[in-house]
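Following up on my earlier thread - several people asked me to post the actual chain instead of describing it. Fair enough. Here it is, all 158 residues.
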Amino acid sequence: MLPTGDVSATEDVYPTEEETALYVALNRAQRSIYVAIDRTLKVKRLPPLRWYDVLWAIERAGDGGLRPFELEKSTIFEQSNLSRALRRMTGEGLIEVSVCPNDRRGKVLRITGKGRRVREAMWKIYGPLIHEHMSGLSEEHDPGETAAALTSLIEKQG
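Reply from S.P.:
Thanks for posting it. Predicted structure:
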């Protein structure tokens, strides 16, 4: 069934062939690179790539930790998947969950020492693979400009 309700004023405006090709290429490239990196981490007996994003966001938050809703905004997870990953990561001793001092119903996530070590081990694999996969593109196109253009698309979505 087709969605109902408010329809954008641009409902009759369709993408150009180039826009469609770019959209498809972005999605295929992301999926291909993600799968390749995730597979390599698995071979090295490291956690899934999605865990890196979570560990890095929590580590960057510092000693104060991060609330789950804040984490959700800075990662690629949907809430249901994030909750499941957080339970598993807590069980593995990579993060700890405590009661938020300002909101007794809320939780605060903090990375553990083990979590930092695992994230660093993941980065030793992940970082060079990003370079390997992106270096060909960055030789032909300015990576900063490309990243800024893609980031502006995200920011326009709110």
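The first strand starts at residue 95 and ends at 99. That should answer part of your original question.
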